[in-house]
Amino acid sequence: VHDLDLSPPPDSGSLLGDLTALLRRLLLELDNPIAAKVIPGVLVEVHGNPDLSARFAATFMVREREVLGEVLDRAVRRGELAERPDVPITHALLLGPVITWLYVFGARPPERLAEHLAGTVAAGLAHAPRAGTPEEPS
Questions:
Q1: Rounded to whole angstroms, how far apart are CA atoms 78 and 93?
Q2: How many CB atoms lie within 10 A of CB 27?
Q3: 52-88 pLDDT per residue, tens
Q4: Do the beta carbons of residue 9 and residue 16 sit within 8 Å?
Q5: 3-class DSSP assignment, residue 22
C-alpha cells in the first residue's frame, strides 16, 4: 500500500507519539475501499507463492521494520526503553490488531484506535522483561 520511500514519522519526543503517528499512517493506508478489496487477495497470493513471499518480505516488510527500528532506537536514546525490543514482534503487535479490525472483523476502526493501540504497545514495551533475561519466579 505504501511505496518504498517510507520514512519514520517526525520525532514526536516520545515513543507513544511516534507509535501513534505510525499507526495513524497505517490506518490511513489500509482503511479505504480499494485496500479492503485488494489486500486480502494480495496476502493470499503472497503466502501461496514462495518467490512472491520472498520479494514482499525483502521490500515492504524490510522497509517497514527499518522504520519501526528507528522509532524504537529513538525511544532507547531518550531513555524510554532500556534496550531495543524485538522489531518483528513489535511490528506484529502494531500491525496485527489493525489487520484484524479491518479485514477479520470487517469493521471501521474506532476513532481513537491508533492512540489506544500505541498506548498499549508503548506501555507493554516499557515494562517488558529484558531480552535474554529470565523472569524471576514469583
A1: 22
A2: 17
A3: 989 888 888 899 999 999 999 999 999 999 999 999 9
A4: no
A5: helix
